[in-house]
Amino acid sequence: MNRRLIEIKKWLLEKGLTQQDIADEAGVTGAAVNHVCRGIVKSSKVKEVLLKHGCPEALLEGKVA
Question: What domains sit in the chain, N to C, each tagged with a CATH number?
Answer without folding.
Answer: 3-57 (1.10.260)
